[in-house]
Specification:
Rossmann fold, 36% helix, alpha/beta
Length: 281
């Protein structure tokens, strides 16, 4: 099987002159589409996680409109990001998919499940929070100081995406190593404009509004909510809040891990996701 680190960079025309960058592991059946985190591109997925998922399902990753190798205008709200993502899915002629959203990608996944319910059969929300949740209006100073600067370091990435324990930090270093296995034909790096626009989207999503919490109850498809127990970026209590608001939800908190729990526990998380997404799940 071709590994994620070996996959060709592909593009698809949205039909109105814009091209989206994506990678596709191939295979039959309903695909699992992954929605990326803050400032992330195709190369910021841990290849081990994609390979674990691809052993059981067809997996598609893509860059949001204007991000990485995709053309267009970078969205300043999550709703705009979701609309652009639907343009990608339509360009791929996908009518129904399973969705895995990570971090801001989980916000986008919520919007898609709400605005086009027929598109998402089942949804996975990793490191997530509902729109309007209290204390989500931007991230803590040390978090945005680590991941929101013009040039971030591996140490800063590990400090947010992994827990303080030696085991978790070691897992972080290993995940970073896997992300840089691909030496040639890497995706276009994200820009400072991407950072600004996506943080605008994060802040707009987090403007406190208790009334907006009711909207999440309109997601009627099965949802798997997951996080690490030490996430400093999107605190685990938001996972409990989501699970309580979504009618058909299951929840799992992974031990000794943080925002990047799905990379640290990639084999376990992939197995949990595939079991959840199975027709019997």
């Amino acid at each position: 099987m071709t590994t994620y680190a070996q996959l060709e960079n592909l593009t698809v025309d949205s039909g109105d002159g814009l091209r989206f960058a994506y990678r596709d592991t191939g295979g039959d059946g309903r695909p699992v589409v992954l929605f990326q985190h803050f400032r992330g591109n195709l190369d910021n997925w841990d290849p081990a996680l994609i390979d674990d998922l691809a052993a059981m399902r067809r997996v598609i990753t893509f860059d949001y409109e204007g991000v990485g190798g995709s053309e267009g205008r970078i969205a300043h709200t999550i709703a705009e990001t979701a609309a652009g993502s639907l343009r990608f899915l339509d360009a791929m002629n996908l009518e129904e998919v399973d969705v895995v959203g990570f971090s801001i990608g989980s916000f986008v996944a919520q919007e898609i499940a709400l605005t086009r319910p027929s598109m998402a059969r089942k949804v996975v929300l990793a490191s997530s929070a509902p729109k309007g949740a209290p204390d989500m209006h931007g991230w803590a100073a040390d978090v945005i100081g680590a991941v929101g600067t013009p040039q971030t370091s591996p140490e800063e990435y590990v400090s947010v995406f992994f827990a303080p324990s030696d085991a978790s930090k070691q897992a972080g270093q290993q995940a970073l190593g896997r992300m840089y296995t691909r030496k040639e034909d890497r995706d276009t790096p994200t820009t400072w404009d991407c950072r600004v626009a996506q943080y605008d989207a994060v802040c707009e999503w987090g403007i406190p509004n208790h009334a907006l919490l009711e909207r999440i109850g309109a997601i009627e498809v099965p949802v798997f909510v997951a996080n690490g127990d030490s996430d400093p970026m999107i605190l685990p209590h938001y996972s409990y809040l989501l699970a309580g608001l979504i009618p058909q939800s299951v929840l799992k908190i992974y031990p000794d891990s943080a925002h990047g729990f799905l990379f640290q526990h990639h084999a376990e998380f992939a197995a949990d996701v595939c079991a959840f997404l199975s027709d019997a799940g």
